[in-house]
Write a structure and sequence with these properties.
Blueprint lengths: L2 E4 L8 E5 L2 E2 H12 L2 E4 L1 H4 L3 E2 L2 E5 L1 H8 L5 E5 L5 E5 L22 H5 L24 E4 L1 H6 L5 H5 L5 E5 L5 E5 L2 E7 L2 E3 L14 E8 L3 H4 L6 E7 L7 E9 L3 E11 L6 E13 L6 E16 L2 E15 L8 E5 L2 E4 L15 E16 L4 E22 L7 E28 L2 E29 L15 E21 L2 E20 L6 E2 L3 E13 L4 E12 L16 E15 L2 E13 L2 E3 L7 E3 L2 E14 L4 E16 L14 E11 L8 E10 L2 E2 L6 E2 L2 E11 L4 E8 L7 E3 L7 E2 L4 E9 L1
Parallel strand pairs: 4-8, 12-15
Antiparallel strand pairs: 1-4, 2-6, 3-5, 7-8, 9-14, 10-11, 11-12, 12-13, 14-15, 16-17, 16-46, 17-18, 18-19, 19-20, 20-23, 21-22, 23-24, 24-25, 25-26, 26-27, 27-28, 28-29, 28-30, 30-31, 31-32, 32-33, 33-36, 34-35, 36-37, 37-38, 38-39, 39-42, 40-41, 42-43, 43-46, 44-45
């Protein structure tokens, strides 16, 4: 099993080191972070070994020699410039990492694993275990370093930092996400979960090490699904060396939170490793009368059955409680002839819910994996995941436009959604030589099941003044409608990367999927299970990459789009929607401007038909919009400009048109901006003291005008700026101040239309103390 630490920095002629004496594994981790090199090693080589440490100013050559003194091991460099630990022999250049085993398993520590996932880092979004530069689609990563520096606490906040992804808030704290004009899919450690992201409560971000996003269609990854993007949430895993880190913080609106994470080996041989974490938060909102409390616990165990086989078992439990649920208000009528509307003029803190409204969520999951390395080139894995979410809520909200005298049609609604996902995957992958060049192959099969029991009830109170909801008496609204819907998918898949000659790679693959849908009524009367016709579909995939140089790769790729109708997405007549079909074409260029910095450029076109959208005339029902064409450009820069300056930025252009549909839906895609720019950058000021001293950060989120489906109201372009000021107190402690929306820009997260509206957060601050040992 290979463990990897990746951080990028120039190897200075001389620099100060402070590496504590102790286990060799821990010393190597600290050395990699301080020197800024890419360093990997097999934990079995370092078990039981110690290092005298390193303190003082050394050249890189002097430092590595002193660190490894007396261990019987040495550091050697491969052709790509990264370093590996081997047994002491004469100095040599190792083969390129493409010729090594494709299995890149858990890393030494969370920050090192995620801090620089650039083009030469592998991603779980590739079944072949390809590096980001070799993957012929656009991939963005929100790593642990960015999560900590921005104090990101939810999956929605993380995705909102990715250029080309639009995170749209919902009144109950959930969100839905769009990219390239389409909804997004989700995976957990590479296992797909059908409809597991949109409008779904998620575990706190503290549970995850990083967030990976592959934009565009990815049928080879998930079979049937949405073509906007695939989001992969990568959990934190046990590490061989002991570490403990945490954060305590306070912020605006009585925000108080604490997070703690610890990991390490449970025996001297480091063959049994564990990890556990907890986070708790209690916060009010910028909206009056809203309070949210939640707590998360997670844990994982990883054990080596033998030197080639590792089993991992983990899980998490989280409970949320929100007092005060507010979905906002729709647009206000100005005149009836002609019809004219505008947003309601009120403070962002105005509460349109009832004081007794609530939303409760209970989440838990269990996951496991078994990995076996057959030899240096071939490995296999079996993985399984079960996730359960139980969400209950009781709230009031306004339907339809607000009248000219501030009256709105107020409804009380009760809901209970019980959703569970089961995912299984088995695969084998490896490399073999053909005409002297390495070829890669992966074969696998998986099973996905989603079951949802949906209960709802409603009662109209008629028209009331929108500013008087606090006087609405408590209403116990019983459920009067309930259904059970189940979707299942069986798939077999394969991908083959062949290299006819050295600069050229051809990737061919496909997934054969079998899909079934069932639905039955629970309320008002129980009905027999209705089984919809089974669907089977082959989703082909093809791509060509060409290495223009060691640092630059050009590519072209094709993806098939096929998304069958969901059992819960029916027309007002009770019929399933038509299956959505289409294809995606993408061409791009990925280049490393230096060993630390990657630049990606992509152009794409997606064609599809029968896209499902909410029926604006009949709430809770759906319609198909006809045919659509989406074109765009993705441009992103990720990595380090130098050893002190890190950047993650991107610009996207989107031109999405519904080319054949009903007239009233022509603006359906304008909720996602045509132009979008996002930036997060940090800069260290090392001259303050020997501990890297002061650091600063700047974030920008800018987008062009947007509207909802009816096009009645357009939001003007806006830019939100965030700032970070931090100070490294010593090797283990740092103090940070985040100022979000520093200019207090007023904007909508969810634009007002016929229903609902949600403002973006006003200016707010977070003060946090982070410790890491």
């Amino acid at each position: 099993m290979s463990s990897m630490v990746i951080v990028h920095a120039k190897q200075q002629a001389s620099q100060a080191y402070d590496v504590a004496a102790g286990s060799l594994g821990s010393a190597l981790s600290s050395f990699a972070v301080q020197s800024g090199v890419a360093l990997s090693f097999d934990p079995s080589l370092t078990r039981g070994l110690t290092s005298v440490g390193l303190k003082g100013s050394y050249s890189f050559e002097q430092a590595k020699n002193k660190l490894m003194q007396g261990t019987g091991l040495t550091l050697v460099q491969n052709k790509q410039g990264s370093w590996m630990v081997t047994r002491s022999t004469k100095t040599e250049i190792l083969p390129s990492s493409e010729n090594l085993s494709s299995t890149v398993l858990p890393v030494i520590n969370t920050e090192a694993e995620s801090s620089n996932l650039q083009q030469n880092k592998r991603t779980q979004l590739s079944k072949l275990g390809l590096k980001i530069q070799q993957t012929p689609q656009t991939i963005s990563v929100v790593d642990q370093e960015q999560i900590q520096s921005q104090n990101l606490q939810t999956v929605s906040q993380a995705l909102n930092q990715v250029a080309g992804v639009t995170a749209i808030s919902y009144g109950d704290g959930t969100s839905y996400f769009q990219s390239r004009g389409y909804a997004t899919d989700v995976q957990f450690d590479g296992l797909p979960a059908s409809d597991g992201l949109q409008y779904m409560t998620q575990f706190d971000l503290n549970y995850y090490d990083r967030v990976e996003v592959q934009r565009g269609a990815s049928g080879i990854l998930s079979g049937f699904g949405n073509p906007g993007a695939t989001v992969n949430l990568v959990r934190k895993k046990p590490t061989p060396d002991f570490q403990i880190n945490g954060t305590v913080g306070i912020g605006s609106w009585n925000n108080a939170f604490i997070a703690l994470d610890t990991s390490g080996s449970l025996n001297n041989d480091q063959t049994i490793r564990g990890r556990a974490g907890v986070s708790v938060q209690d916060k009010d909102s910028f909206v009056d009368q809203i309070n949210n409390q939640h707590g998360l616990f997670y844990g994982a165990l990883s054990g080596d059955i033998d030197e080639n086989t590792t089993i991992t078992l983990g899980g998490a439990y989280q409970k949320n409680h929100t007092n005060g649920v507010d979905y906002g208000v729709s647009l206000k009528l100005l005149s009836l002839n002609p019809v004219a509307v505008e947003p309601v003029s009120a403070s962002r803190s105005t509460f349109y819910g009832t004081p007794w409204s609530f939303a409760d969520d209970e989440l838990y999951e269990i996951y496991t994996s078994l990995e076996h390395k057959w030899n240096e080139n071939w490995s296999s894995e079996i993985a399984a995941n079960y996730r359960n979410i139980d969400s209950k809520s009781l709230y009031g909200n306004f339907w339809n436009p607000i009248s000219m005298n501030d009256l709105g049609n107020y409804h009380i609604q009760s809901q209970n959604l019980k959703t569970e996902w089961t995912s299984l995957d088995a695969s084998i992958k490896g490399q073999f030589d053909w005409f002297g060049l390495p070829q890669s192959l992966v074969l696998g099969s998986n099973y996905n099941r989603r079951n949802q029991d949906s209960y709802s009830g409603g009662e109209s109170l008629g028209y009331i003044n929108i500013f008087s909801t606090s006087t609405v008496p408590y209403k116990d609204v019983p459920y009067d409608y309930a259904t059970e819907a189940t979707t299942e998918q069986y798939s077999v898949y394969g991908q083959f990367l062949m290299k006819p000659f050295e600069p050229l790679s051809i990737i061919l693959g496909g997934r054969q999927s079998w899909y079934s849908n069932t639905k039955s009524g629970i309320l008002p009367v129980a009905t027999a299970k209705e089984t919809y016709p089974d669907i089977n579909k082959f989703s082909p995939y093809a791509a060509v990459t060409y290495d223009l140089s060691k640092s630059t790769t050009a590519y072209i790729s094709y993806n098939n789009i096929f998304s069958p109708p969901q059992a819960w997405q029916t027309t007002v007549d009770g019929n399933l929607l038509q299956a959505r079909e289409g294809e995606q074409y993408e061409v791009g260029l990925k280049t490393q401007l230096n060993a630390q910095l990657g630049l990606d450029i992509a152009l794409y076109q997606l064609n599809d038909k029968n896209r499902p959208v909410a029926d604006t005339t009949h709430p809770n029902f759906w319609i198909s919009t006809g045919e659509a064409k989406t074109r765009g450009i993705d441009l992103q820069l990720q990595g380090k400009l130098n050893s002190l300056w890190k950047i993650n930025t991107g610009y996207t252009y989107l031109d999405s048109q519904l080319t054949k549909t009903e007239a009233e839906l022509k603006n359906q895609d304008a909720e996602e901006p045509r132009h979008q720019f996002k930036l997060w950058t940090t800069y260290n000021l090392p001259f303050i003291n020997s501990y890297d001293g002061t650091y600063i950060g700047l974030g920008l989120r800018s987008q062009s005008k947007t509207t909802r489906s009816d096009g009645a109201y357009w939001q003007d372009p806006y830019t939100v700026a965030d700032l970070l000021f931090g100070y490294q107190l010593d090797n283990n402690l740092k103090l940070s101040l985040n100022i979000n929306n520093v200019f207090d820009k007023k904007y909508y997260d969810r634009l007002p239309a016929q229903y609902y509206s949600v403002y973006g957060q006003p200016r707010n601050v977070l003060l946090s103390l982070n410790f890491n040992y």
